Amino acid sequence: MLKDKYINPLAFSKQEFEQYEDSLKYYKDLTNVTNTAYLEGEKKE
């Protein structure tokens, strides 16, 4: 992701950086679920 490249990990504490990584995981999971559902919907049509 482009946004990943612009985050300065030195600007966060260890806990904040772990929270940031967790939020990215959730975001990417939701994006993948949405994209998969969309693609499967296209196949059914």
Overview of this protein structure:
The structure is a single chain. 78% of the residues lie in helices and 0% in strands. It has 2 helices and no strands. The model has no long low-confidence stretch (mean pLDDT 82).
Kindly list the characteristics that best describe this protein.
single chain, about 45 residues, mainly alpha
Helix-strand topology string: HH
The number of helical segments is 2
How helical, in percent, are the residues?
over 70%
The first-to-last residue Cα distance is 30 Å
Quantity of strands, as a count: 0
Radius of gyration: 15 Å
The overall average pLDDT, rounded, is 82
> What is the global morphology?
rod-shaped
Q: What is the fold's blueprint, element by element?
A:
Elements: H1 2-5, H2 14-44
What is this entry, summarized?
By secondary structure, the chain is mostly helical. The chain has two helices and no strands.
